[in-house]
Specification:
246 residues; alpha/beta; Rossmann fold; 2 domains; 7-stranded mixed sheet; 8 helices; 43% helix; 20% strand; globular; Methyltransf_25; CmoA
């Protein structure tokens, strides 16, 4: 059953900072589908990319997994023998519901790639050697001063031939571009049924929690972290997904 996101439909005297609590976990599938242009394409393609790069007997990480959409996609597409996915999130409510989704997927499809869902802080998580790492709209919620170190640890853990898939909301240095794509994003949300009040209150809730970077910043940081090559493979409005290779 899909629960409709109406968390910001009522005017609030004070809009609190956004948190991934039980209320958000309950409506998250509807929220992200109506808020992130191109999200279904990104999620399905993550599975395809992982299927190309997953190596037999290796670990795959979905860091900041939320409800596990990317993990479910990878489980459908990864055919390499003896792979194991570790899905990680620091929000207990998201982890609880993610585990339920994985159990439901197991009941519908046989012989899926095994998965463990754990509650942990990815900035402190010890990463084991791996062939695929996914950060699907996760890095933007990490403190900016911790982002390079996290990417460095991911680079060190990735095996030769491995891949990092990094999806992020973008900001733009050029003010005209920023304004144009921002307004298109609001139009996208309105077209999906969000009111101006909901859009404004969600923006207030998330502006101090989610801090986006420019594409140029992302590319330079990936280089600084030791990745040999990186490129964008998808962009829709101000949302982008990138691939980075060791």
């Amino acid at each position: 059953m899909t629960h409709i996101d109406n968390l910001f439909a009522t005017r609030q005297a004070r809009v609190a900072d956004f948190v991934f609590d039980h209320d958000v976990a309950r409506v998250f599938p509807d929220m992200i589908k109506r808020s992130v242009p191109g999200y279904p394409t990104i999620v399905e393609s993550i599975g395809l990319i992982a299927g190309q790069h997953a190596q037999a007997g290796t670990r795959i990480y979905d860091l900041g997994c939320s409800l596990g959409a990317a993990t479910q996609s990878m489980r459908r597409h990864v055919s390499a023998d003896a792979c194991r996915i570790t899905a990680v999130d620091n929000a207990a409510a998201m982890v609880e519901r993610c585990r339920e989704y994985m159990i439901a997927q197991d009941s519908m499809v046989e012989e899926l790639c095994p998965v463990e869902v754990i509650e942990a802080d990815i900035t402190a998580l010890e990463l084991r050697p791996c062939s695929v790492v996914v950060l699907n709209f996760t890095l933007q919620f990490i403190s900016p001063e911790q982002r390079l170190e996290l990417l460095q640890r991911i680079r060190q853990a990735l095996l030769p031939g491995g891949v990092l898939i990094l999806s992020e909301k973008l900001r733009f240095a050029d003010e005209a571009t920023q304004h144009s794509l921002e307004q298109l994003h609001y139009a996208f949300k309105r077209a999906n049924g969000y009111s101006d009040l909901e859009i404004a209150q969600k923006r207030s809730a998330i502006e101090n929690v989610m801090i986006p970077d420019t594409l140029e910043t992302h590319m330079q940081r990936l280089t600084d972290a030791g990745f040999g090559h990186a490129h964008a493979w998808f962009q829709c409005l101000n949302f982008c997904s990138m691939i980075a290779y060791p």
